[in-house]
Amino acid sequence: MFLFRSFLIKTFLLFSRMTGTDKAIFYISVDPSNVELAAVLYISVFKAERITQYDDGSVELKIFDSSVLVTSGSPRFRSIVELRVDPHTISLVIDSQAFVATDLKLNLSSQYLLKVIDPFQVIWLLSIKEFSDGLRYLPSCTKCKYPSHHRPALCSEMTRWQLMIGQSLETRELLGIEPYFRDIETLEADLFRIRECRTFYEILNVRSFVGVLSTTLDELERFNTLLQGLHVVRALNPTYEAAGNFKNLLRSAVNSYNSLLEAIIPTGMARETRELPNPVATRARAADNWRQLVKRCHSARFLMNNKLSKANTREELWMSDLLYDEVSDWRKQNI
After folding, report:
1. Secondary structure in 3-state letters for the chain
2. From CA 15, how far away is CA 29, in angstroms rounded?
């Protein structure tokens, strides 16, 4: 019964494979003594997650959006795994001595950036996720499941905002939210430019891209969404920015964001020379200005509530904890 159940699991995974998709299921058969060694290698390089350890020694892993079953056997054919990964993973594979590049002819399309063979004779076909795959670095809100995190706006404020922006232009102007609406539209356009820029640099030079440039684009995305959330807060709470030197901090943070964005977006000259920018100093100044703004956001709502003689809600306390962590994180980026 045990052997039959194990056979059914493996057969299901083998025939459930959806070739060429992110959410694929792959079957890797290796020598019995190498099952755990292979799993450890994939966890190390691909940051795989160990999902299930079966009684027969097989290991089910989750690698990005794909499931991979590593099991024992003597396959007649080499296992082939197709993954769409981030540039950091590409760099890890290139630098790893365990993977060897191959020019094996597999009648493949040019989408595969890297073809390598591991010590267990498994062929890995790797391509890069494009900006159109969405935000890889910004998880959805854990409470309201909004597509990207909206700090410092509360989940309830995001719900109110969605209702308000559905109103006519005249109504938005009457409510006084139209300027914030236009600012958010501009930031959304910037976000597309940032993702498009990421794709351009990844294709241009993957190995050089990994590092300061890749991290800077991640941070631009994060601060972009933070500014969007901040505009929502300001639109719904007129007295929010009355705290201390909030307006000056906001101005400095926005100027830093625009300067860094300008330094990152490839110009016509950069496209011709194929040189990657190195915005170390600009990034450090921006991170410092962003940290100071987030720190002010951490206290601004409490100061606003105090002036309104209003108690802080559990949702506001939750957001305060998130912003506190955000301040610490931006302090680390100021290098």
Report:
1. CHHHHHHHHHHHHHHCCCCCCCCCEEEEEECHHHHHHHHHHHHHHHCCEEEEECCCCCEEEEECCEEEEEEECCCCCCCEEEEEECHHHHHHHHHCCCCEECCCCCCCCCCCCEEEECCCCCEEEEEECCHHHCCCCCCCCCCCCCCCCCCCCCHHHHHHHHHHHCCCHHHHHHHCCHHHHHHHHHHHHHHHHHHHHHHHHHHHCHHHHCCHHHHHHHHHHHHHHHHHHHHHHHHHCCCHHHCCCHHHHHHHHHHHHHHHHHHHCCCHHHHHHCCCCCCHHHHHHHHHHHHHHHHHHHHHHHHHHHHCCCCCCHHHHHHHHHHHHHHHHHHHHCC
2. 14
Per-position pLDDT tens, the chain of length 335 = 434 344 444 443 443 333 333 445 788 888 888 999 999 999 988 888 888 888 888 899 988 778 888 988 765 567 888 887 776 777 788 888 888 887 655 444 445 567 888 998 888 888 776 533 344 445 567 777 676 678 899 988 988 888 887 778 888 888 888 899 889 889 888 887 887 777 777 666 655 565 677 778 888 888 898 999 999 999 999 888 887 788 899 999 999 999 988 888 766 655 555 566 777 788 888 888 888 888 898 888 888 988 889 998 998 888 888 888 887 777 766 54
d(CA 29, CA 113): 24
Domains of the chain (ranges plus CATH)? 2-129 (3.10.180.10), 132-333 (no CATH)
> Which pair of structure tokens corresponds to residue 134?
């969405």
Q: Which of 171, 141, 168 is nearest to 156 (CA)?
A: 141
Check: pTM over 0.70? Answer yes or no: no
From the CB of residue 317, how many other CB atoms can be counted at a distance below 10 Å? 11
